[in-house]
Write a structure and sequence with these properties.
Layout (H helix, E strand, L loop, with lengths): L1 E6 L2 H13 L3 E6 L2 H11 L3 E5 L7 H8 L7 E6 L6 H6 L5 E4 L4 H12 L4 E3 L4 H4 L4 H4 L2 H11 L4 H8 L3 H15 L7 H7 L3 H5 L9
Parallel strand pairs: 1-2, 1-3, 3-4, 4-5, 5-6
Helix pairs in contact: 8-10, 9-10
GO biological process, one term: regulation of DNA-templated transcription
GO molecular function, one term: DNA binding
Protein name: DNA-binding NarL/FixJ family response regulator
Amino acid sequence: MRLAVCDEQGLFASVLATALDQQGHLTVLTTHEPAVLLSSAAEARIEVCVLDIVTARPSAVQVAEQLARLDPRPAVVLLTDSCRDGVWDAYERGLFQGIVNKACAFAVLTAAIERVADGEQVSEGWPPPERRGDNGVVDALTSRELEVLRLVVQGHSTQLMADELGVSRHTIRTHVQQILRKLGVHGRGKIARVAAAAGLLDAVRSPTAERRPR
């Protein structure tokens, strides 16, 4: 399978491309610049593009729109921890054949790539479309906040969460406060109920949402 990897973090793009090659794929293009991807995609005859663009322009949605005009058209897998700026609308329109949370394990990504190449549309590490709703909660939480949310739901103490994630208690408290703010609740006791209503528990309890090695 001929792949392209385009991620704003050039080092991450290179590491990911190497890992995909080791899985038997052929990464023919690796870049951190959307313009390079767009100028080379047709000639490289890319089958699947693994993409993450959050701050640069053109945006991930705009890149997907331009890739959709190519013949042959590559499938696009958005590998990201931030689904904003019309990403889910683009998914519903078929511009993204896959959306994978960066908190997912590498094996989940490779399986998603293969499924997309077979013509499926895949969402991994995010609640299914009918559970996402319109409140933007899922989009607002970062991958690390999803990890902390998972541990809170499992009843872990601040110290246990700090040990699990290898960070300080202060960092954990900061993440918890951000989660509470984004969920619009006060106190950890209400987190699980609100997260379930927002469709978040499918992601944080699923084995597909385990941490990916960095």
